[in-house]
Amino acid sequence: MSTETNSETQSNEQADVWLTPDQVDAMRDVAIDTGAKYLRQRNEAIITLLADTGLRNEELTQLTVEMYLRDQGELYLPKEIQKSSHNGRSDWPRSHHLELDVDGTLGTQRSLNSYLDNRWKESPYLFPSRQKEQITTRSVRNLVKRAAVEADVRPYKYENGDFGRGDPQDVHPHVLRHSLAYRLLHERDDDKFDIYFVRNRLRHASLQTTLREYDHFRTI
Q1: Where are the domains of the chain?
Q2: In sequence order, what are the beta bridge partners of 125?
Q3: Distance CA 75, CA 102 (A)
Q4: Going by DSSP bridges, is the β-strand pair 96-99/68-69 parallel, antiparallel, or unpaired?
Q5: pLDDT of 37-77, one tens digit each?
Q6: Is 158 exposed, middle or buried (0-12, 13-18, 19+ CB in 10 A)?
Q7: What pLDDT is attached to residue 189?
Q8: Which residues in the chain land under pLDDT 70?
């Protein structure tokens, strides 16, 4: 099982790179319109699922077809594929059922269903690669970065108390996790999509982790 780079695993640090919903949509458009035709729906589904659920790269690569509960519109995440807590909690992670497209903006089920109905390759894993039954974290990083570069998205950055803009090369899978938090905290339904909802969506063991990473998003 492959590991992620340090830039993708800074879960205890303040989120410093993120995308707006329009930028995520631009990446999805690029994914479905470019590259090898038989991989386009897969690539678009990967970007959509990352943006919708906040899955970590390594978690996404371990998803099986059976974990997508198509009839329920949910993704089942067993605890064994999730990142372990570093705060000493023995009961975390827990298995989760994640409702897909909670804010109705991404059409995640439509994307996944279309991909699976036309998938070029049978595999027990949800996302196979050209050569193997299971895509690697490196391949996911590459396709996310390629979509960002081809869409020419300049992510937003927060560094040393200042807001600015980055380069497409700064975008990696964990940026889509940050982008989910940004999107939810700027939804009109503030009563539902608050910091507690974001904590549960991202499956943090502690609310303090969510506040440390994303509290500044509420003032942007």
Answers
A1: 16-219
A2: 64
A3: 12
A4: unpaired
A5: 999 999 999 999 999 999 999 999 999 999 999 999 999 99
A6: middle
A7: 63
A8: 1-12, 85-88, 188-190
Looking up tokens 């023995």, which residue turns up? 90
Structure tokens at 68: 């997508």
Angstrom CA distances, 182 to 5, 203, 213, 216, stand at 22, 16, 11, 10
Using the structure block, give the residue that is written with the tokens 């990352």: 50
**Which CA distances in Å does 120 have to 4, 30, 107, 114, 129?**
27, 20, 21, 12, 10
SS3 breakdown of the chain: % helix, strand, coil, rounded to 5? Answer: 50, 10, 40
pTM: 0.91
Q: What's the CATH code, domain 16-219?
A: 1.10.443.10
Whole-angstrom distance, CA of residue 40 vs CA of residue 34:
7
- Residue range 179-200, pLDDT digits in tens: 999 999 987 666 788 999 999 9
